[in-house]
Write a sequence for this structure.
């Protein structure tokens, strides 16, 4: 009887490991989402700062709106998300919002069209998406067999 119980436990653990690996593999879509979010954020902020006035808004929104629509549709079509995905996504969006707000609040009145401000500002605003992609990549990476 004890042998049967230990085999059942071993099978259950193997099944749990297999399910975890499958969820992680199917959750790798989020890395692509976060990379795209970071890269698009960079381009949008750079365009907003370098094109002055209404042209900056038009060019940046011409990049941002289609990208966000595409990312939203892409995310909605994914059947799996790893444990903690909602929290990590919330942190990414919150950090992005703070950095975006700061970049615009300082940059628009003080540094219109100044590449020396807008290039690092765009890099800073893209950092939450890129850092989240790196963390998600590590979290969902295939695990080595023991």
């Amino acid at each position: 009887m004890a042998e049967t119980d230990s085999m059942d436990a071993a099978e259950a653990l193997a099944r749990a490991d297999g399910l975890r690996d499958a969820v992680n593999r199917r959750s790798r879509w989020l890395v692509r989402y976060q990379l795209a979010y970071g890269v698009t954020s960079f381009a949008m902020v750079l365009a907003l700062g370098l094109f002055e006035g209404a042209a900056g808004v038009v060019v940046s929104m011409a990049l941002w709106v289609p990208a966000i629509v595409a990312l939203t549709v892409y995310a909605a079509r994914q059947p799996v998300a790893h444990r903690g995905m909602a929290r990590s996504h919330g942190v990414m969006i919150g950090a992005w919002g703070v950095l975006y707000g700061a970049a615009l609040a300082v940059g628009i009145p003080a540094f219109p069209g100044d590449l020396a401000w807008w290039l690092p500002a765009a890099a800073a605003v893209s950092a939450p998406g890129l850092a989240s992609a790196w963390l998600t990549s590590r979290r969902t990476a295939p695990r080595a067999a023991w």
In short: The chain has five helices and no strands. The first helix runs from residue 2 to 26.
